[in-house]
């Protein structure tokens, strides 16, 4: 990773239309972001858990492998539908939040990281299922990006128990300092620490990773043709846009669109409509 540029943290400046909350929680730093978790309300049986360990966990440890076979000898319930039900409907993936780079400046959302591609049945009743490693390598890159963001926080003077408002101020300025807006960049956020160039989604992904690492409830917001962030402070949603804030060279002017209500943010044409948050 390249050396992170120096940045300046100054007191929050009150700007017209800005309503900065006075109550906030305290930061609780995170140390690791898993590639997948079990969805809320779902549980895995012992057999299902073993199937995940035999496929997804195996590919995470061996991302160079393209395929693996599992057998009904080890998994009596095995079938394409059974495996697909686990991986598509019982698991959340890191790439559900941080979409994957398609290599041409666009991004896509994979529904699963592995895929059953061939079922082989035998006369004795045994069945083998070939599982393809579909997106594990990219998911690992995403995980590395998020975990590196988590590890940076102490260097940015973010600490356990810090007021969330203070932390958000530091992170907003840091993201503005790190990234130079470049419309010609590919927008590949996982390499933002090397390139230092990006577009709106790169600013938003980086802020989300850093804020989540600080224990702040933060989201990536998708508009009609733009991306920014939402944070939840004292159970109230506020919006900020590091990309827009970076239009201003002076740190004290970096609150152009900072901790606004939905009503306030919607007065800006690029933020009028929210299509999705993640």
Automatic annotation (TrEMBL):
It holds the Pfam family Transglut_core. InterPro entries: Papain-like_cys_pep_sf (IPR038765), Transglutaminase-like (IPR002931). It comes from [Clostridium] symbiosum ATCC 14940. This is Transglutaminase-like domain-containing protein. Residues 192-244 form the Transglutaminase-like domain. Gene3D superfamilies: 3.10.620.30.
């Amino acid at each position: 990773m390249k050396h992170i540029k120096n940045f300046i943290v100054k007191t929050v400046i009150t700007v017209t239309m800005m309503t900065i909350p006075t109550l906030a929680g305290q930061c609780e730093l995170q140390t690791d972001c898993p590639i997948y978790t079990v969805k809320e309300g779902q549980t895995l049986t012992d057999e299902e858990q073993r199937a995940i360990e035999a496929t997804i966990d195996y590919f995470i440890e061996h991302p160079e492998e393209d395929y693996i076979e599992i057998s009904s000898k080890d998994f009596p319930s095995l079938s394409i539908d059974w495996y697909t039900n686990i991986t598509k409907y019982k698991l959340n993936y890191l790439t559900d939040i941080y979409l994957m780079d398609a290599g041409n400046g666009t991004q896509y959302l994979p529904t699963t990281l592995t895929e059953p591609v061939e079922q082989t049945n035998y006369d004795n009743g045994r069945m083998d299922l070939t599982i393809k490693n579909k997106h594990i390598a990219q998911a690992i890159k995403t995980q590395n990006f998020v975990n590196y963001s988590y590890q940076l926080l102490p260097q940015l003077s973010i600490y356990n128990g810090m007021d969330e408002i203070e932390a958000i101020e530091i992170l907003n300025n840091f993201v503005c300092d790190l990234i130079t807006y470049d419309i010609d960049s590919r927008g590949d956020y996982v390499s933002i620490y090397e390139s230092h160039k990006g577009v709106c989604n790169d600013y938003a992904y980086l802020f989300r990773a850093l804020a989540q690492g600080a224990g702040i409830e933060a989201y990536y917001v998708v508009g009609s043709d733009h991306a920014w962030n939402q944070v939840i402070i004292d159970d109230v949603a506020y919006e900020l846009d590091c990309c827009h804030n970076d239009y201003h060279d002076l740190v004290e002017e970096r609150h152009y669109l900072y901790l606004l209500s939905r009503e306030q943010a919607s007065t800006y044409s690029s933020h009028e409509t929210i299509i999705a948050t993640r």
